[in-house]
Amino acid sequence: MVFETKKQRIVNSLKVADVENADGREFQVSPLFPYSNTSAIAVSSGTFLIDVETDTPTGSNRAGSGFRYSPFNNCRVVNNSNSDIIVYPNQQRAQGILITKKTAQTMDNQVIKGFNSMIIENIDSSNAVAVNEVRVLFWKDKVTTDELVKSIHAFIRGGHK
Amino acid sequence: MGQFPQFLTPTDFGMSTSATAISVITGKWNEVGRKTVGAQQILNWGVGTIANGVDSRRNGRLRLDSLAGQITGKFRLARTDANAEILEPILEDNTTNWSATNGIPVGFDGRGAKEDSALVILLNPDATTTVQYTDTDTTVNLPVTVTTGVR
Fold first, then answer.
1. Which of residues 84-113 of A touch B (CB under 8 A)?
2. A161 and B83: CB-CB below 8 Å?
3. What pTM value is reported for the model?
4. Per-residue confidence band for A12, with pLDDT thresholds at 50, 70 and 90
5. Contacts of A75 (CB under 8 A, 6+ apart)
6. Which site from A59, A142, B74, B135 is most exposed, i.e. has the minimal number of CB atoms within 10 Å?
7. Of B70, B36, B39, residue with least CA distance to B138
8. What ipTM, to 2 d.p.?
């Protein structure tokens, strides 16, 4: 039988709470979260949306499993199709990035600060993009000291963004 | 600093009748409108509160149509920062409530959007379709609180 003082019981309960509630995942390198166009993308401005909050990563059975780590600060788009596409990070239609057919492009947070969603637009007038021909890989690098300081500052400041 | 209520319309969110139709996919949160905050301003979703038994909240209405009629699903009001890195939902309700005669109450929310950040409208439709902004049934009448003279 373990005897513990009232003070020790409180300390132990806090330790348990720390373990149960500790979540340093947002500061660690994330797993890789692959997505692809799960339906064909029609010619001449057909679009497909990847939404990290609701979509199931390729090979996963859990919708939104990437949401915990978002916004991601790295993205690699592989265009295996015969069509040129434009990707719009975070559905921002004023900030499209052209990715020509049979090419790939990597974007880090020097290009886009964070990824929560992406629209893929087929700008080819002849070739549709078949299912799974465009693959998008999201991941998050570990937090740098600069980012950590910014997060703490934002947390303390709170309020408006 | 000054503060006053304002009602935003389709044009404020880039959803005017001249806006290009966009495809929206079921099961996903599609951005259908965006209002970027101007210089030296803060915009907060909603006007009014419930206090001392008095409900001073103003109502908002939303409706978007496809060629087949009203798009059903859920609307979200959210805010995002200038880099579109953070997307924070503020209020969500289904399209039936949003398009009702009186809409739904949209009370003041303290999480505002500063200069160059944005208030966004997201739609999660019940079926994949295309939003036709030219439809005369398009309705956007949303209360916001504007704070000016922010430095």
1. 89-92, 112-113
2. no
3. 0.83
4. low
5. A89, A106, A107, A108, A112, A115, A118, A136, A137, A138
6. A59
7. B70
8. 0.84
